[in-house]
Write a structure and sequence with these properties.
With 418 residues, the chain is α/β, with parallel strands linked by helices. The protein has two domains: 219 residues, Carbamate kinase; 117 residues, VC0802-like, CATH 3.30.2130. Helix content is 39%, strand content 23%. The chain is built from 13 helices and 16 strands. The strands form three sheets. An eight-stranded mixed sheet has the order 3-4-2-1-7-9-10-8, with helices on both faces. Strand 9 and strand 10 form a beta hairpin.
Protein backbone atom coordinates (compact mmCIF):
# COMPACT_ATOMS: atom_id res chain seq x y z
CA UNK A 1 0.00 0.00 0.00
CA UNK A 2 0.97 3.62 -0.48
CA UNK A 3 0.23 6.94 1.18
CA UNK A 4 -0.70 9.94 -0.98
CA UNK A 5 -0.73 13.41 0.56
CA UNK A 6 -2.46 16.35 -1.11
CA UNK A 7 -1.88 19.87 0.20
CA UNK A 8 -4.30 22.76 0.29
CA UNK A 9 -3.22 24.13 -3.09
CA UNK A 10 -4.18 20.85 -4.77
CA UNK A 11 -7.75 20.90 -3.37
CA UNK A 12 -8.47 24.62 -3.38
CA UNK A 13 -11.36 24.27 -5.85
CA UNK A 14 -13.52 21.76 -7.71
CA UNK A 15 -10.99 21.48 -10.54
CA UNK A 16 -8.29 20.52 -8.06
CA UNK A 17 -10.50 17.82 -6.55
CA UNK A 18 -11.25 16.36 -9.96
CA UNK A 19 -7.51 16.27 -10.60
CA UNK A 20 -6.97 14.51 -7.25
CA UNK A 21 -9.57 11.92 -8.23
CA UNK A 22 -7.82 11.35 -11.56
CA UNK A 23 -4.44 10.84 -9.87
CA UNK A 24 -5.90 8.45 -7.29
CA UNK A 25 -7.83 6.50 -9.95
CA UNK A 26 -4.61 5.73 -11.83
CA UNK A 27 -3.02 4.05 -8.79
CA UNK A 28 -3.68 0.32 -8.43
CA UNK A 29 -2.23 -0.11 -4.94
CA UNK A 30 -4.22 0.23 -1.72
CA UNK A 31 -4.12 3.88 -0.63
CA UNK A 32 -4.35 6.17 2.33
CA UNK A 33 -5.15 9.64 0.98
CA UNK A 34 -4.14 12.36 3.44
CA UNK A 35 -5.68 15.75 2.64
CA UNK A 36 -5.04 19.25 3.97
CA UNK A 37 -7.61 22.03 4.34
CA UNK A 38 -8.86 23.76 1.19
CA UNK A 39 -6.59 26.53 -0.10
CA UNK A 40 -6.10 29.21 2.55
CA UNK A 41 -8.74 27.84 4.94
CA UNK A 42 -6.28 27.44 7.82
CA UNK A 43 -5.34 31.11 7.54
CA UNK A 44 -9.01 32.06 7.40
CA UNK A 45 -9.81 30.01 10.51
CA UNK A 46 -6.93 31.69 12.34
CA UNK A 47 -8.68 35.01 11.62
CA UNK A 48 -11.94 33.57 12.96
CA UNK A 49 -10.14 32.50 16.12
CA UNK A 50 -8.48 35.89 16.58
CA UNK A 51 -11.78 37.77 16.23
CA UNK A 52 -13.61 35.34 18.52
CA UNK A 53 -11.00 35.58 21.27
CA UNK A 54 -11.13 39.38 21.01
CA UNK A 55 -14.91 39.33 21.45
CA UNK A 56 -15.44 40.66 17.93
CA UNK A 57 -18.69 39.38 16.42
CA UNK A 58 -17.09 39.72 12.99
CA UNK A 59 -15.93 36.14 13.47
CA UNK A 60 -19.41 35.04 12.36
CA UNK A 61 -19.04 36.83 9.03
CA UNK A 62 -15.56 35.37 8.57
CA UNK A 63 -16.92 31.91 9.25
CA UNK A 64 -19.76 32.45 6.80
CA UNK A 65 -17.22 33.31 4.07
CA UNK A 66 -15.43 30.01 4.72
CA UNK A 67 -18.73 28.13 4.63
CA UNK A 68 -19.73 29.76 1.33
CA UNK A 69 -16.37 28.86 -0.19
CA UNK A 70 -16.86 25.19 0.66
CA UNK A 71 -20.43 25.27 -0.61
CA UNK A 72 -19.30 26.76 -3.93
CA UNK A 73 -16.88 23.84 -4.36
CA UNK A 74 -19.69 21.38 -3.59
CA UNK A 75 -22.10 23.07 -5.99
CA UNK A 76 -19.60 22.82 -8.84
CA UNK A 77 -18.36 19.33 -8.03
CA UNK A 78 -21.51 17.31 -7.41
CA UNK A 79 -24.63 16.65 -9.43
CA UNK A 80 -26.47 15.58 -6.26
CA UNK A 81 -25.35 18.25 -3.81
CA UNK A 82 -27.44 17.18 -0.83
CA UNK A 83 -25.16 14.53 0.71
CA UNK A 84 -21.89 16.51 0.98
CA UNK A 85 -23.78 19.72 1.82
CA UNK A 86 -25.61 18.01 4.67
CA UNK A 87 -22.43 16.54 6.09
CA UNK A 88 -20.57 19.83 5.84
CA UNK A 89 -23.47 21.58 7.58
CA UNK A 90 -23.16 19.20 10.53
CA UNK A 91 -19.47 19.99 11.01
CA UNK A 92 -19.95 23.75 10.62
CA UNK A 93 -22.73 23.57 13.23
CA UNK A 94 -20.39 21.82 15.66
CA UNK A 95 -17.81 24.58 15.25
CA UNK A 96 -20.45 27.28 15.74
CA UNK A 97 -21.58 25.57 18.94
CA UNK A 98 -18.01 25.59 20.21
CA UNK A 99 -17.66 29.29 19.41
CA UNK A 100 -20.93 30.06 21.22
CA UNK A 101 -19.80 28.22 24.35
CA UNK A 102 -17.71 29.67 27.16
CA UNK A 103 -14.10 30.21 26.08
CA UNK A 104 -11.67 27.61 27.36
CA UNK A 105 -8.43 28.84 28.92
CA UNK A 106 -5.30 28.71 26.79
CA UNK A 107 -4.81 30.06 23.27
CA UNK A 108 -3.18 26.85 22.01
CA UNK A 109 -6.11 24.69 23.16
CA UNK A 110 -8.65 26.95 21.46
CA UNK A 111 -6.48 27.11 18.35
CA UNK A 112 -6.57 23.35 17.89
CA UNK A 113 -10.31 23.04 18.52
CA UNK A 114 -11.11 25.72 15.91
CA UNK A 115 -8.48 25.52 13.19
CA UNK A 116 -8.66 21.71 12.90
CA UNK A 117 -12.08 21.93 11.22
CA UNK A 118 -10.46 22.88 7.91
CA UNK A 119 -9.15 19.35 7.43
CA UNK A 120 -12.48 17.80 8.43
CA UNK A 121 -14.42 19.81 5.83
CA UNK A 122 -11.98 19.19 2.98
CA UNK A 123 -11.79 15.44 3.56
CA UNK A 124 -15.56 15.08 3.75
CA UNK A 125 -15.84 16.64 0.27
CA UNK A 126 -12.93 14.64 -1.19
CA UNK A 127 -14.20 11.36 0.25
CA UNK A 128 -17.73 11.88 -1.02
CA UNK A 129 -16.43 12.65 -4.51
CA UNK A 130 -14.13 9.61 -4.55
CA UNK A 131 -16.94 7.34 -3.31
CA UNK A 132 -18.91 8.24 -6.45
CA UNK A 133 -16.00 7.60 -8.80
CA UNK A 134 -14.04 4.94 -6.91
CA UNK A 135 -16.15 2.46 -4.96
CA UNK A 136 -14.26 1.05 -2.01
CA UNK A 137 -13.43 4.47 -0.60
CA UNK A 138 -14.10 5.39 3.03
CA UNK A 139 -13.73 8.57 5.12
CA UNK A 140 -11.87 8.26 8.42
CA UNK A 141 -11.69 10.72 11.30
CA UNK A 142 -7.99 10.43 12.10
CA UNK A 143 -8.57 11.83 15.60
CA UNK A 144 -9.92 8.41 16.54
CA UNK A 145 -6.72 6.73 15.36
CA UNK A 146 -3.79 9.05 16.01
CA UNK A 147 -3.60 9.55 19.77
CA UNK A 148 -1.40 12.38 21.02
CA UNK A 149 -0.43 14.06 24.25
CA UNK A 150 -2.00 17.41 25.16
CA UNK A 151 0.83 19.60 23.90
CA UNK A 152 -1.58 21.68 21.83
CA UNK A 153 -0.38 23.14 18.50
CA UNK A 154 2.65 20.82 18.52
CA UNK A 155 1.32 17.54 19.83
CA UNK A 156 3.43 14.41 20.20
CA UNK A 157 2.18 11.09 18.84
CA UNK A 158 1.62 8.27 21.31
CA UNK A 159 3.12 5.66 19.03
CA UNK A 160 2.19 2.36 20.63
CA UNK A 161 -1.50 3.15 21.19
CA UNK A 162 -1.82 4.91 17.83
CA UNK A 163 -0.23 2.10 15.83
CA UNK A 164 -2.70 -0.39 17.22
CA UNK A 165 -5.64 1.87 16.41
CA UNK A 166 -4.40 2.79 12.93
CA UNK A 167 -3.99 -0.84 11.89
CA UNK A 168 -7.47 -1.66 13.15
CA UNK A 169 -9.26 1.33 11.59
CA UNK A 170 -7.39 1.41 8.26
CA UNK A 171 -8.20 -2.21 7.35
CA UNK A 172 -7.51 -2.87 3.67
CA UNK A 173 -9.43 -6.12 3.81
CA UNK A 174 -12.54 -3.96 4.06
CA UNK A 175 -11.74 -0.96 1.86
CA UNK A 176 -9.08 -0.13 -0.75
CA UNK A 177 -8.92 3.65 -0.27
CA UNK A 178 -9.11 5.59 2.98
CA UNK A 179 -9.42 9.38 2.95
CA UNK A 180 -8.33 11.13 6.11
CA UNK A 181 -6.98 14.36 7.55
CA UNK A 182 -3.46 15.60 7.88
CA UNK A 183 -2.27 17.96 10.62
CA UNK A 184 -4.62 16.77 13.38
CA UNK A 185 -4.88 14.13 16.08
CA UNK A 186 -6.75 13.60 19.32
CA UNK A 187 -6.12 13.10 23.02
CA UNK A 188 -7.47 10.19 25.06
CA UNK A 189 -9.87 12.74 26.62
CA UNK A 190 -11.35 13.45 23.18
CA UNK A 191 -9.84 16.88 22.54
CA UNK A 192 -8.47 17.74 19.11
CA UNK A 193 -4.76 18.47 18.75
CA UNK A 194 -2.62 19.66 15.86
CA UNK A 195 0.87 18.46 14.94
CA UNK A 196 2.42 21.81 14.01
CA UNK A 197 1.72 24.18 11.12
CA UNK A 198 1.88 22.45 7.72
CA UNK A 199 1.86 19.12 9.58
CA UNK A 200 -0.01 17.06 6.96
CA UNK A 201 3.29 15.76 5.52
CA UNK A 202 4.12 14.48 9.00
CA UNK A 203 0.74 12.73 9.24
CA UNK A 204 1.44 10.95 5.95
CA UNK A 205 4.85 9.79 7.24
CA UNK A 206 3.38 8.59 10.53
CA UNK A 207 0.71 6.51 8.80
CA UNK A 208 3.25 5.12 6.32
CA UNK A 209 5.45 4.00 9.21
CA UNK A 210 2.61 2.39 11.13
CA UNK A 211 1.23 0.61 8.07
CA UNK A 212 4.64 -0.35 6.58
CA UNK A 213 3.82 1.48 3.36
CA UNK A 214 5.71 0.91 0.14
CA UNK A 215 6.14 4.68 -0.34
CA UNK A 216 4.75 8.12 0.37
CA UNK A 217 3.93 10.58 -2.41
CA UNK A 218 3.50 14.25 -1.55
CA UNK A 219 1.66 15.99 -4.39
CA UNK A 220 2.58 19.68 -4.70
CA UNK A 221 2.41 22.54 -7.19
CA UNK A 222 6.13 22.23 -8.01
CA UNK A 223 7.86 19.61 -10.19
CA UNK A 224 9.82 18.28 -7.20
CA UNK A 225 12.29 19.58 -4.66
CA UNK A 226 14.26 22.49 -6.10
CA UNK A 227 17.64 23.81 -5.02
CA UNK A 228 15.98 27.15 -4.20
CA UNK A 229 12.58 28.78 -3.99
CA UNK A 230 11.94 29.89 -7.61
CA UNK A 231 10.19 33.02 -6.30
CA UNK A 232 13.56 33.97 -4.80
CA UNK A 233 15.97 32.55 -7.37
CA UNK A 234 14.15 32.08 -10.71
CA UNK A 235 16.80 29.74 -12.17
CA UNK A 236 16.24 27.10 -9.47
CA UNK A 237 16.98 23.51 -10.55
CA UNK A 238 15.08 20.33 -9.70
CA UNK A 239 16.92 17.77 -7.59
CA UNK A 240 16.20 14.25 -8.86
CA UNK A 241 17.04 12.57 -5.55
CA UNK A 242 18.31 13.49 -2.11
CA UNK A 243 19.13 11.49 1.00
CA UNK A 244 17.16 11.49 4.23
CA UNK A 245 20.04 13.37 5.88
CA UNK A 246 20.04 16.05 3.18
CA UNK A 247 16.28 16.47 3.54
CA UNK A 248 16.59 16.89 7.33
CA UNK A 249 19.32 19.50 6.90
CA UNK A 250 17.23 21.40 4.37
CA UNK A 251 14.04 21.40 6.45
CA UNK A 252 15.93 22.42 9.59
CA UNK A 253 17.36 25.39 7.71
CA UNK A 254 13.87 26.45 6.67
CA UNK A 255 13.08 24.72 3.37
CA UNK A 256 9.29 24.60 3.16
CA UNK A 257 8.89 21.76 0.70
CA UNK A 258 8.19 19.23 3.50
CA UNK A 259 7.44 19.40 7.24
CA UNK A 260 10.61 19.05 9.38
CA UNK A 261 9.30 16.03 11.31
CA UNK A 262 8.42 14.08 8.17
CA UNK A 263 11.70 12.29 7.57
CA UNK A 264 12.32 10.38 10.80
CA UNK A 265 9.28 8.00 10.62
CA UNK A 266 10.19 7.20 7.00
CA UNK A 267 13.91 6.74 7.68
CA UNK A 268 13.09 4.34 10.54
CA UNK A 269 11.33 2.01 8.09
CA UNK A 270 13.39 2.90 4.99
CA UNK A 271 10.28 4.17 3.17
CA UNK A 272 11.02 6.46 0.20
CA UNK A 273 9.28 9.82 -0.06
CA UNK A 274 8.40 11.12 -3.53
CA UNK A 275 7.64 14.80 -4.12
CA UNK A 276 5.67 15.14 -7.35
CA UNK A 277 3.59 17.74 -9.17
CA UNK A 278 -0.18 17.43 -9.17
CA UNK A 279 -0.10 19.77 -12.19
CA UNK A 280 2.17 17.37 -14.14
CA UNK A 281 1.47 13.98 -12.51
CA UNK A 282 3.41 12.05 -15.16
CA UNK A 283 6.65 13.72 -14.03
CA UNK A 284 9.08 11.75 -11.86
CA UNK A 285 9.61 14.53 -9.31
CA UNK A 286 12.16 14.06 -6.53
CA UNK A 287 12.70 10.99 -4.37
CA UNK A 288 14.07 11.12 -0.82
CA UNK A 289 15.68 7.82 0.17
CA UNK A 290 18.57 6.31 2.08
CA UNK A 291 21.02 5.73 -0.75
CA UNK A 292 20.41 8.90 -2.77
CA UNK A 293 23.26 11.08 -3.99
CA UNK A 294 23.01 14.80 -4.60
CA UNK A 295 24.43 15.91 -7.93
CA UNK A 296 27.82 17.49 -7.34
CA UNK A 297 28.26 21.21 -7.86
CA UNK A 298 24.67 22.21 -7.10
CA UNK A 299 24.41 24.47 -4.04
CA UNK A 300 21.06 24.39 -2.23
CA UNK A 301 19.77 27.83 -1.21
CA UNK A 302 17.29 28.23 1.65
CA UNK A 303 15.69 31.40 3.00
CA UNK A 304 13.90 31.48 6.35
CA UNK A 305 11.96 34.71 6.71
CA UNK A 306 10.35 36.47 9.69
CA UNK A 307 13.20 35.91 12.13
CA UNK A 308 14.44 37.63 15.27
CA UNK A 309 18.10 37.61 16.34
CA UNK A 310 18.33 37.67 20.16
CA UNK A 311 21.62 38.57 21.85
CA UNK A 312 22.04 37.55 25.51
CA UNK A 313 24.82 38.37 27.97
CA UNK A 314 25.06 37.44 31.69
CA UNK A 315 24.69 40.53 33.87
CA UNK A 316 27.68 39.48 35.97
CA UNK A 317 29.86 38.75 32.90
CA UNK A 318 30.19 35.12 33.94
CA UNK A 319 30.89 32.58 31.22
CA UNK A 320 27.83 31.80 29.15
CA UNK A 321 28.66 28.10 28.94
CA UNK A 322 27.80 25.39 31.47
CA UNK A 323 24.94 26.14 33.85
CA UNK A 324 24.17 29.47 32.20
CA UNK A 325 23.68 27.83 28.81
CA UNK A 326 21.51 25.13 30.30
CA UNK A 327 19.28 27.71 32.02
CA UNK A 328 18.99 29.82 28.89
CA UNK A 329 17.71 26.95 26.79
CA UNK A 330 15.41 25.81 29.56
CA UNK A 331 13.72 29.22 29.28
CA UNK A 332 13.46 28.85 25.49
CA UNK A 333 11.81 25.45 25.92
CA UNK A 334 9.46 26.72 28.63
CA UNK A 335 8.21 29.48 26.33
CA UNK A 336 7.82 27.13 23.37
CA UNK A 337 10.42 28.93 21.27
CA UNK A 338 12.28 26.82 18.71
CA UNK A 339 15.88 27.77 18.06
CA UNK A 340 16.99 27.99 14.41
CA UNK A 341 20.62 29.05 14.93
CA UNK A 342 22.97 29.46 17.92
CA UNK A 343 26.30 31.29 18.07
CA UNK A 344 28.10 31.46 21.43
CA UNK A 345 31.20 33.28 22.67
CA UNK A 346 32.69 33.36 26.17
CA UNK A 347 30.25 35.89 27.60
CA UNK A 348 27.44 36.18 25.07
CA UNK A 349 25.12 34.08 22.97
CA UNK A 350 23.19 34.94 19.80
CA UNK A 351 20.07 32.97 18.97
CA UNK A 352 17.95 33.21 15.83
CA UNK A 353 14.26 32.27 16.28
CA UNK A 354 10.93 32.67 14.49
CA UNK A 355 9.33 36.09 14.98
CA UNK A 356 6.73 35.18 17.59
CA UNK A 357 6.87 38.53 19.36
CA UNK A 358 4.72 37.75 22.39
CA UNK A 359 6.75 34.65 23.21
CA UNK A 360 10.05 36.49 22.70
CA UNK A 361 8.96 39.40 24.92
CA UNK A 362 7.89 36.98 27.67
CA UNK A 363 11.21 35.13 27.37
CA UNK A 364 13.26 38.33 27.70
CA UNK A 365 11.17 39.39 30.69
CA UNK A 366 11.95 36.09 32.46
CA UNK A 367 15.66 36.31 31.62
CA UNK A 368 16.23 39.96 32.59
CA UNK A 369 17.22 39.30 36.23
CA UNK A 370 20.24 37.29 35.07
CA UNK A 371 20.87 38.39 31.49
CA UNK A 372 20.82 41.57 29.48
CA UNK A 373 19.03 41.02 26.19
CA UNK A 374 18.60 42.91 22.95
CA UNK A 375 17.16 41.76 19.68
CA UNK A 376 17.11 42.63 16.01
CA UNK A 377 13.81 42.08 14.26
CA UNK A 378 13.07 42.23 10.53
CA UNK A 379 15.83 39.77 9.77
CA UNK A 380 16.01 36.56 7.78
CA UNK A 381 18.27 33.52 7.84
CA UNK A 382 19.95 32.54 4.58
CA UNK A 383 21.52 29.08 4.31
CA UNK A 384 23.52 27.39 1.57
CA UNK A 385 24.17 23.66 1.57
CA UNK A 386 27.28 22.61 -0.43
CA UNK A 387 28.25 26.25 -0.79
CA UNK A 388 30.78 27.89 -3.05
CA UNK A 389 32.08 31.43 -2.70
CA UNK A 390 30.22 32.32 -5.88
CA UNK A 391 26.99 31.05 -4.29
CA UNK A 392 27.71 33.01 -1.11
CA UNK A 393 28.26 36.22 -3.06
CA UNK A 394 25.08 35.70 -5.01
CA UNK A 395 22.82 35.97 -1.95
CA UNK A 396 24.86 38.22 0.37
CA UNK A 397 26.18 40.97 -1.90
CA UNK A 398 24.86 44.35 -0.71
CA UNK A 399 23.20 42.71 2.32
CA UNK A 400 23.92 43.74 5.93
CA UNK A 401 25.21 40.57 7.60
CA UNK A 402 24.50 40.45 11.35
CA UNK A 403 25.85 36.95 11.93
CA UNK A 404 27.74 34.36 9.88
CA UNK A 405 28.22 30.69 10.70
CA UNK A 406 30.14 28.14 8.59
CA UNK A 407 30.70 24.40 8.70
CA UNK A 408 32.30 22.21 6.07
CA UNK A 409 29.06 21.74 4.16
CA UNK A 410 26.76 24.57 5.26
CA UNK A 411 26.99 28.34 5.63
CA UNK A 412 24.32 30.44 7.33
CA UNK A 413 23.84 34.17 7.47
CA UNK A 414 21.45 36.28 9.50
CA UNK A 415 20.83 39.42 7.45
CA UNK A 416 18.61 42.46 7.48
CA UNK A 417 15.45 41.96 5.46
CA UNK A 418 16.00 43.36 1.99
Amino acid sequence: MKVFKFGGASVRDASGMRNLSMIVSEESADLVVVVSALGKTTNALEKVLKAWLAGDKAYLLLLEEIYNNHQSVIQELFTDKTVPSGKIDVWFTLLKEYLLSEKSPGYDFNYDQVVSYGEIWSTVIVAEYLMINLPGTEWVDIRNALLTDDNYRDANILWSESTERVKKILDFKKKRIYVTQGFIGGTSAGHTTTLGREGSDYTAAILANMLDAESVVVWKDVPGILNADPKWLPDAQKLDEISYKEAVEMTFSGAKVIHPKTIKPLHNKNIPLHVRSFLLPAGKGTVIKADATLKKGIPVFIKKEDQILISLQPNDFSFVMGDNLSRIFHFFMTHGIKVNLVEASAVSIDVCVDDEREKVDALIEDLKTEFSAVYNDNVEMLSIRHYTEEAVGRITDAREILLEQRTRSTVRFVVRTA
